[in-house]
Structure formats: structure tokens, C-alpha cells
Amino acid sequence: MLSVQEAFQLILETVKPASPEQRTLFEAWHCVLAEGTVSDLNIPPFDKALMDGFAVKSSDCQNGKATLQIQEIIYAGSVPTISLQSGQTSQIMTGAPLPEGADAVVQIEHCQIDDAARSVKIDTGPVSPGKNMLPQSSVLEAGAPVLAAGTLLRPQEIGALAETGSPTVKVRRAPTVAILATGDELVAPEESPEPGQIRNSNEVMLHAQILQTDAKPQPLGIARDERNHLRSKIQEGLKSDFLLLSGGVSAGERDLVPSELEQAGVKQVFHMVNLKPGKPLWFGILERSDGDPCYIFGLPGNPVSSMVCFELFVRTAIRQFMGFPSPRPQVQQARLKNDYHTSGNRPTYQPARLEWEAGESTVSPLITMGSADLNSTVKANAVALFPTGNQHYQAGLKVDVFLW
Amino acid sequence: MLSVQEAFQLILETVKPASPEQRTLFEAWHCVLAEGTVSDLNIPPFDKALMDGFAVKSSDCQNGKATLQIQEIIYAGSVPTISLQSGQTSQIMTGAPLPEGADAVVQIEHCQIDDAARSVKIDTGPVSPGKNMLPQSSVLEAGAPVLAAGTLLRPQEIGALAETGSPTVKVRRAPTVAILATGDELVAPEESPEPGQIRNSNEVMLHAQILQTDAKPQPLGIARDERNHLRSKIQEGLKSDFLLLSGGVSAGERDLVPSELEQAGVKQVFHMVNLKPGKPLWFGILERSDGDPCYIFGLPGNPVSSMVCFELFVRTAIRQFMGFPSPRPQVQQARLKNDYHTSGNRPTYQPARLEWEAGESTVSPLITMGSADLNSTVKANAVALFPTGNQHYQAGLKVDVFLW
User: Which residues cross the membrane (chains A, B) (predicted)?
Assistant: First the structure.
């Protein structure tokens, strides 16, 4: 059976990043840059005041005390007109350009203005060159690289792009993701289950997981375990970039999903992965005539299995589609808070509680009633990883975890 | 001057959580529950098979070997019709209800079916009662609480709500947040700055920060440092739940924002907070005739100050509006990776890089060229907190940090 790492590898080889498209910075948050950017100007473009106060020659105020003649007032957005000589100063606002001859700013709080004499009395500590100002191009020179291809655009990157002359950027879009829950035992959440039935909790859960990746969920409701109904729903779902089927992929006799996908022209990439929960995972691709393939995941119907498979495999595929340079889940280490015991011949991905205390992270695997126990995952904020085999893990041991 | 903690306190006393509203689970992701929920049914509602295989009496297979007579096939969603006697079994699919008399499931992989004899030969390990099945109501009993008021709805909570009969929930909406950048020195990101001008990077950055909180940004462009223009833009912004003004709140002579807000009927709650960067922060409230107030923040114009003030104060206010039980930034501890020196009479909130290595978190404060140096924040994923005063901090010391 395929290992988790082999499954990741096949997903990354199969899923092509979306074609880059141009977007404004208002539409680019949490996208990944498809091309690097350079600055079209010096940052700052001029010697810039960082405080409201008086622009001075630092040589005039070396001991922090001076009385200087006021030449003009320089507002942010305006241009100084008078070059300072020794004994002269100009009042200046935060963000405004320093006049020629000035090399420092004294904060307004340390200045006493004499309107009649058009002078200012400065009383502060020693003023060194560069005080309260940012020299031209000290942050970045025109032509210098700002952000590299593959950078995830957070608020600060978006601000830096705006500042450096990239009002639009090349990024890759997030995919549309259709959700199709299958199974005769399912009823909608607003219905009361008859004997033998359960509510379709996976659809809304997957919907939220998709939103969490910034992709666009397209819920298709419930497909019955009946070929014609399933077929028409699958056809609808295959129009999206991704189709997630929930249920219908294990060894049960009515698990029609793999055969119906094959009928629809979907090529299976893998079926069954060596992990617990989530073994029945199915993955395939449909090459479409428009050139953009559809990627199909058959997720196990048990809610905890479905959730784990999404966070591991579907999220990786979506991140690959969006152009993330490291699409796999980011694993960290944490110390086990309690003893833990594993059994069986598959690696365990156990819902767990990760906590940070005083610079150390600890993890407590959660006791669950099995992979149908969605309620236990409500306490989880992470998944703890344990290798194959019957093993006893002592509290204090470091184990791998990833956040979910 | 107000301390950071006093400013938090005033924000939390001023901002009222939004009125609860009913939403479907498709619209409730990342909202906070305004009312607790209870389950309307037992989870699971019946003894449920966790594997495809054969439902058995464990007493028939104590040593793992048995040949049993097949009674019927039970699919998920159907109801068993035959009660098992000793020596009998029914084939069963994952998710289906166990027949009366059965107390365990043997996986299909360990079963050999003899179609002619309508029997199955089981060859597996010892079968204990409860094997591969989840007993009725073992996860949750009907009437038991599922989620408490104040719970943030992640995918797993949404799934649990669907399962337990809460297809709609009472949650508090995210606010609309208008953004108004002020200053004659500003030009739009798509323009080339003339001498003395800079690009308006704060608007798109705040836009992205707002999206990151799930609130709805409403960018209003640039207001000139001219009373009539500023006034009409402010009137437009005061229709939103929040109005963020960028720039125009420090001690500069053209800082018209506080006086124009007062003219518009906005009551100042505080101005100036004892932190670096971000001291000029302004906060107020407008009581409107419709009963829903508008909350107004005047943010410093320097991009790094603006970013820090948003993450500390605006985010706290938005989380309070959305009903988060702990709206303040969540502080963790991390070890300093390098020596660090602070100076001045205000606590420092320094952009920093937080890293997790082998279960320990370390933090490196970033060298910046001051609060206009947006480029340095591109390397940051956190803010490190240092108390007031000229202090030397040695590498290895634990300091407070929060993620941004």
C-alpha cells in the first residue's frame, strides 16, 4: 500500500499549478506570487522626517541646545524650497522631505517657538546626524528585488508591493471545489434521521475546510447509492477544478464511486493509503477538452477520516494548485503530555491538542471513540503522528504534529 | 499616557458585540456561537459498524475462528430485519446499524464467503465485545450539550453541529470596516510619486489585514489635508461599523483628523498610547440614530506603526464585535535568538521572526530602519514585546511574542 509520503509525491506530480493571472492588490491577499517584483523607486524616495518637529543641521545642536531661525514650514507631500545654512531650521511634519543642508529632526516636544522672532529654542539631548529621519534609498534602491516568486502575500507584502510600484501582480487563483456526499444512509442536517440514517455532516465540514484554504466551495448535496443519480451528480462536479466525493470508496458492496468515476473518464492515480484513519482515500484526474484538468478525491465517509484526509492530502493539492512552494503540511515537534499507546499496522494520525507554555509546545492525543467520533475533534487543534506498530510512548517524548 | 493594557480595557468597554443572527452552517464558518447548542439525538443513534465485514456475536468468535450462517446484508441507511442467534451472522457495511444480538464486527479482509452454503469462514484474532463498532449514544446522549456559547466555529465544530441537529445557529456577524487614508503626500499605488510624495501603501495593507479578520473592508481612497474633502469622506466612512483613518493623528499642524471627527459628533475615547511604534493612536465612538454605533480608529500614517496598531487594537475591537470570548492578542513566550537592546521611555513592539525548532520556539527581533520601513516587516511573522527603558536582553532569555 502507498505510504503517506508516496501519496504526497503523486499528488504533487499530478496537480499542475493554475496559470498566473494579473490581479490588483485588493484581490491578491493570501495568493502566491507567480513572478518576482522589483522596486521602481528608491525607498524612501527622499530624506524623510520620522517625527513632527524641526529639521536641523546636527552640527548646530551637538550638545542639544540651540536657538535657530525658522525658514519655512514643510508639510508632508510638499517640497522644501530653502536650503539650510548654519543657524537656520525649518519646521517639518512627519513624512515630509528634509530640506537641503539638514541631516536630523528634533521632535516638536523639545522645541519652543518664538513667533515674533521667527526663531525656535531647542532643548534636548545631543543630536547626531540621521536622528529622527530616514535617508533616501536606505530601505531599498530603485531596481532592487522586493519579493521573490513563490511568496505568500500577507498584509505586509501587499503594503510593500504598493509602495514599490506593483499595483497589480501575477498570482495563481484558488480553485473551485465541488463537494458531493454519497450514501443512502445520509439525510440533510435539517432533517430528522429515520432508523439507520445519519445526518450529512461532512458536506458542511468540507465546505468550511475549503473556505479555510481560500478555495471556493460548491456543495452539490447528497448522491444516492444508485448509478444514474450518482452519475449525473459526478458530471456536475467534474466541471469544477476539484471534486471531493465523501463516502463510497471503501470495500463495501455499494461503493460505486470508483467505477462511476472510471466510466466518466477519470484516471485513477491511487486508491488506499497506509494511514489510520483514512486508508480508503482515492485520488484521480480527468483531462478535459478545455485543457484544465479536474482533480478528484474520494474521501472516506467517516467524519474524522474525512477531516484528516482533507487536511493532509486535499489541502496539499489545493496549495500546489495555488502555487505554494511548500504545499505539504508543515510538521513541527512537541512533547507528549501524557503516555500514549498505539497499535496496528498503519501509522496513526491522531486528533490532538497542541499547547504552548513558556516557549515549549506540548501535545495531548485525544481519546476518541473511533473515526466516526466527530465530537472528540472539537477539542483538537492539531494531529499527532505515530509510526506503525504496537508502541508505548512515554510522556515527555518529542513527536511530530501538524496544526489543523 | 494610557498603557497598552488600559487601551485594551477601554476598547473592550466601548465596543458592543453585534446582535446575534441566525445563519446556516454554510455561512457560519469562523463565526462565534452566541448561544450554546444541545444534541437532539443520540450519537451514534444506533450501534454502528465501523468497518465493512460481518456482524457477529463475539461469544461465537472468542478464539477468532468460526463458521457462521449468513442471514442478510445490511447496507448503510437500511435497517436490519433479523436478530442474530448463536452461529449466525449478517454481512454489514461501514456506517450500517448492527442487527439485534450482534456486539462486534469482523473485517471483511478476515472473512471467506461460501456462497453455496450461505456461510462465512472467519479467521482472525480474538474478537472482544464492541470490536469495530460504536455503541449507541457512546459519543453523546440526546439532550447533552454539544458546544458552548463563545465557541469559534471551525470545520469540526460545524460538522458536529450538523450531526447533532443544529442546521442553523445563532452567531454574531463580522463588521464592515471603512478605510480612509489621509495626507497630501499620498498618491495611489498605480501613480508615480512626484518629489515629496509617497504611494498609499496603508490602504491595501489595511484591506488585507481586515480580510484576515474575516471582516468586510470598504476602501474609500485618499482624503486630502483639506477640511471639506476630509469631512465628506469621513461622513461616508461613518456609515460602516468601523472607520479606520490612516494618518493625520500625530502632533503635526495639518493633522485635522481629531477635530473633524469631533465636528462629526464622534466622541473621543482616547488619544495617544504608551507604545513604540504607534503612540499617536486615536480611538472614538459615534452613537448613531439607528442604535448601532460606529467605532473609529485614527491610525498612525507610518506603515509599521499602522500595522502594529491594527494587530493590537483594531483586531481586538473586531474580535469583541464578533463575540470572541478572549478578544485580546494571544501572547506566547519564546527564547531570544540573539542579544537585543532597547531604549526609550515606551514599551517596544518589535516586528520579529518566530520559529519553531524541535518543540521550542525562538524569536529574532528584526532590524528595521524605523516605523516607515515596511520592507523589514516582510520578514516578520510576529511581534516581540520589550518593556520600557534602556535594557540589554541576552540571547536565550524568554520574551513575550504574539503572532501577526
Answer: none
pLDDT band at B375 (very low <50, low <70, confident <90, very high): confident
DSSP A276: B
Q: Which of the four pLDDT bands, split at 50, 70 and 90, describes residue B283?
A: very high
**Distance of residue B87 Cα from the nearest chain A Cα, in angstroms:** 23
**Res B50 pLDDT > 90:** no
Quote the minimal CA–CA distance from A289 to chain B in Å.
Answer: 32
Report pLDDT for A370. 63
The pLDDT, as a whole number, for residue B4 is 96
Rounded mean pLDDT of chain B? 93
Q: Which residue has the cell 505510504?
A: A3
Transcribe B36-75 into DSSP letters. -EE-SS-BSSS-EESSSEEEE-GGGGTTSEEEEEEEEEE-
B85: cell is 442467534
> What was the pLDDT predicted at A253?
52
Mean pLDDT, consecutive 10-residue segments, chain A of 404 residues?
96 97 97 96 91 95 94 91 97 93 95 96 95 91 95 96 96 97 93 92 97 97 92 97 89 74 95 92 94 95 91 98 96 93 89 87 84 76 90 93 88
Stretch (H or E) spanning A231? helix A227-237
* pLDDT of A254: 63
Query: A140 in contact with B at a CB cutoff of 8 Å?
Result: yes
**Among the listed residues B315, B340, B342, the one whose alpha carbon sits nearest the alpha carbon of residue B330:** B315
Range 42-81 of A in CB contact (< 8 A) with B: 43-46, 48, 50, 52, 73, 75-79
Name A89's Cβ contacts closer than 8 Å, sequence gap at least 6. A54, A55, A56, A60, A68, A69, A70, A71, A102, A120
Would you call B143 an interface residue with chain A, using a CB distance cutoff of 8 Å?
A: no
**Cross-chain residue pair B207–A29, CB shorter than 8 Å:** yes
d(CA A313, CA A327): 10
Residue among A38, A43, A46 nearest A141 (CA) = A43
Q: Are B199 and B187 in contact (CB under 8 A)?
A: yes
Domains and CATH numbers, chain B: 4-18+173-321 (3.40.980.10), 20-43+138-172 (3.90.105.10), 48-134 (2.170.190.11), 332-403 (2.40.340.10)
**What Å distances lie between residue B381 and A155, A322, B355, B360, CA to CA?**
11, 21, 9, 16
With an 8 Å Cβ cutoff, is A337 touching chain B?
no
Q: Hey, is the C-beta of A318 within 8 angstroms of any chain B C-beta?
A: no
Of A183, A198, A356, which is closest to B45 when you measure between CB atoms?
A198
Burial of A303 (0-12, 13-18, 19+ CB in 10 A): buried
Q: How far apart are CA B256 and CA B247, in angstroms?
A: 10
**What's the gap in Å between the CA of B18 and the closest CA on chain A?**
22
Q: Which value does ipTM take for this structure? A: 0.91
Residue in B closest to A130 by C-alpha: B369
Residue in chain B closest to A334 (alpha carbons) equals B359
pLDDT band per the 50, 70, 90 thresholds, residue B370: low
